[in-house]
Amino acid sequence: MIEDWPALLLVLVLLLACLVALILVLVARREAAAVRAQAREDVASLKDELHVRAAEADRRSARLDDERARLEADRVQLAEDRARITRLAESLDARTASLTAQETALGTRTAEHEARVAEELAQIAETTVEQARARLADDLAERAARDVEARLRRTERRLRAESEARARSILTTAVERLAVATSSQLSVVIVPLPSPELKGPIIGRDGRNIKAFEALTGVNLIVDDSDDHVQISSFDAERREIAQQSLERLLADGRINLERMERVVATVTDEAEERSRDSARHAIDDACVRPLHPELEEHVGRLRLRTSYGQVVQQHLVECALLARSIAGEIGADAEVAARAAFLHDVGKAVPAGERGSHARAGAELAARCGEPEIIVNAIAAHHGEVPAESVEAVIVQIADAISASRPGARREDADSHVERLEALERAVAAHPGVARALALSSGHDVRVVVEPGVVGDDDLEGLAAQIASAISETQAVPGEVRVTVVRELRATATAG
Fold first, then answer.
1. Confidence band for 418, pLDDT divided at 50, 70 and 90
2. What average pLDDT does range 215-231 have in this prediction?
3. Whole-number Å distance between alpha carbons of 289 and 372
4. Sign of CA pseudo-dihedral 460, 461, 466, 472
5. Residue 435's beta-bridge partner residues?
6. What CA–CA distance (Å, rounded) separates 173 from 139?
7. Pick from 367, 369, 370, 371: which is nearest to 394 by CA?
8. 3-state SS string over 299-313?
9. Among 278, 333, 365, 454, which residue has the fewest nearby CB atoms (within 10 Å)?
């Protein structure tokens, strides 16, 4: 057995070598299989990529073929266009040559005809050829002038009709876009009562509370047993507002006595400036204009209580600004300038009467002092035609002012009260010594005074005019500016025979 160990050892070594070789073969086969699988995947990926590139190449080739076909068609079309242009140019040259020849022939025939007519006229009128030619030229010139004048008249009529139609369209569009309520002011304000039981405290014992309230506010208070509201009546808008605000606060609080009335009325009166500023800022926002100078803003706030024939002036300014913006946008003018000028055109009405002449001139001076541009200052001064309008925006302001004032319901005035006011004005003027006759014209804004020449002398005219103007200002019978003209006429008559 010991002698067989070498052989067994050799066999074991050989078996181990075979086992190692087998393992190496298996590992090699596995690696070869992985390499083959990877190779197959790479081949498949390459095939897919080649297919994609081949498809892309086919698409590009197709696009190139289309481009070549289109270019070829464009070349053919271009060649045809060039041939057609060449033929048209040749035809045009031929026609030009023909027209030139015809024009030359016509000129020759015309010259011959004129010469023949001139000779005939010379023979008939026994004038020279030059005189006949000059006369013929004058006749032709006169006929041409008449033809041109007739054409100009027709063109003018056509343009006037077109411009009127365009203007109507623009104004209609502007009015349609501005759908706002008419701004009117009444002399009576209705304050609803939260409870009917408050009528007694308002009236007070023996009417003391109502009398005290009327004395504090300067209005008439009407309390009817059959109604659930209280009427405040006054021709002064500021008094009406203070009375309304005070009464509403008293009704909301429920405590109505003399001491409480005095405090509330004083508080409401002190808050007038704040209400004025708030009203001006709301108006600026509604008109969509840029912020104003503080002084201009203050004057705009004052206009919340100013009316013109029942139309609230501040609301009138807002309406004019919106109209002017719309009209300027339709015709291509500066909408911002037109709206700002229209918003400020009546700001002079807030200037105290003793510090201004016409409200247009006062408003222009105020705007210039507050740094407004010259174009806006001119539009304010020119909105009643007192100065020439220097821009299209100034004309737009005049149009917007007229539209706002003439809309149905915007302004109102009772005919009887208007006549009574003018008659009262004439009676007040005629009451001055030496006045023979007084005539109120232009709705009371122009007063003509005829004086007795034996009573009033020439040196007294200016003093009498100033005295009458001062009296009219104190009565405030007519809103706005009133011009007084005193006329003194001395006549001498004699009879002969």
1. low
2. 76
3. 13
4. positive
5. 451
6. 51
7. 367
8. HHHHHHHCEECCEEH
9. 454
Q: Please answer whether residues 224 and 191 qualify as being in contact, where contact means their C-beta atoms are separated by less than 8 angstroms.
A: no
- pLDDT at position 465: 86
Residue with tokens 């006229």: 121
Asked whether the beta carbons of 348 and 358 are under 8 A apart, the reply is yes
- Among 49-58, 114-123, 164-173, top mean pLDDT goes to 49-58
From first CA to last CA, the distance across the chain in angstroms is 203
Residue 55 tokens read as 């498809």
* Alpha-helical regions (H) of 431-478: 461-475
DSSP 214-281: HHHH--EEEE-TT-SEEEEE-S-HHHHHHHHHHHHHHHHH----HHHHHHHHHHHHHTHHHHHHHHHH
Q: Quick one: angle between helices 335-344 and 374-381, nearest 10? A: 50
183 confidence band (pLDDT: 50, 70, 90): very low
From CA 439, how far away is CA 85, in angstroms rounded?
A: 83
> In this predicted model, which residue has the larger pLDDT, 481 or 65?
65
C-alpha–C-alpha distance, residues 214 and 197, integer Å: 20
Q: Where do we find the tokens 């007294």?
A: 460
How confident is the model over 42-67, as a mean pLDDT? 86
